[in-house]
Here is the input.
Amino acid sequence: MNKIQTHNKLSFAEITQSSLAVWKGQCWEWNNPPTFGDVVTVHQNNYIVYGIVTTIQTESLDPARTPVAYKKTEEELLHDQPQIFHFLKTTFQCVTIGYEQNGIIFYQLPIHPLKMHAFIAKAQAHEYEKIFTSDQFLHSIFNHSAQLGCSLDELLLGIIKNLSEHSVLHKNVLTQFIESFSLLNKNDYKKLKVFTGRVQYLLEKLNPTILTTEW
Here is the structure.
């Protein structure tokens, strides 16, 4: 099975709105969304585009059918009124962090926007390892912070959590992450102190062995 076949097999959504820096996808199943801060991939021509999920929302497919409260559990609704779930859709927004061509990662925008209806897949472990070997992805995120649709700090914490859960948050990766965060924030000590405090709290719960005092 080649890369494109593997990608298609792992796909869960497709492009519904596209630009170079920011794009949107719709899940094929409304209850199978990506994770906030997760990496997703799209194959286009002879390269692979990598994006970070910045927003996720579930809403009605039909503007005339606004969801209302029924005072029932999800299980009760599935039993009594399963049809209401047929009118839901889950969409998400991504910001481009780079693309891969001929095995090389370029941390910049691709030359073309993604094609409409192109399949979107969740990144695999080896892709996480590859894309986060460099802290250059942070530059892409900071450059498009006004288009994220969410808090920058919350997104970065989400990325760190996903890196930990994919077992690619090594000490050198975390150190580079914090150093670049400080540099991109013009060495703002107060902002750095607040952010590293939140990172430390998060990792104490997830992966305390990764914590270092060399920040």
